[in-house]
Amino acid sequence: MSTGWIVLGVIVVLVLFAFSAYNRLVALGQRVSQAFADVDVQLKQRHDLIPNLVETVKGYASHERGTLDDVIKARNSAMSAQGPAQVSAAENQLSGALGRLIALSEAYPDLKANANFQQLASELSDLENKIAASRRFFNNAVQEYNTGIQQMPAALFAGMFGFTRKDFFDLGASRTEVEAAPQVKF
After folding, report:
1. Where do the H-state alpha helices sit in the chain?
2. Which residue of 5, 64, 78, 97 shows the fewest CB atoms closer than 10 Å?
3. What membrane topology does the UniProt entry give (predicted)?
């Protein structure tokens, strides 16, 4: 009789632990989803700002059509991307195109002095900082989630409950460009 109670007690503890592990992993998964949604909101704001920036530059640098077209193509590609890996790659392309667009202002002093351009560039800079913060938050949530599904004893239940590894919002191939020190020439 007492052996039966012990076995029942062990089973109850295991079931309670499984429920606890499942609920923790669900909460971590929801945090990852919420963090990606936050990144997505910031990226949408950037996508909405880009046409205004391009139109402002068009008036000053109409012969720079290739750069302007690249920005629009990259924006459209970024808007249609799905999932962290595709969004990350498309946004990296868009960041590069935007960098070239902003660099045009150096070649056109009238554009650089334009109040509308300055305001849009300032908004873009602010958005880039918010996007970077959102990416860090997302990557932190992914790290906690991935750690949660790999730690014992939750790892015993994670696969059974359908929890799989999530991808980070990574710089990918452009990492070398971002990490490279700028070259200064006189």
Report:
1. 2-60, 65-80, 83-107, 109-113, 115-150, 154-158, 175-179
2. 5
3. Single-pass membrane protein
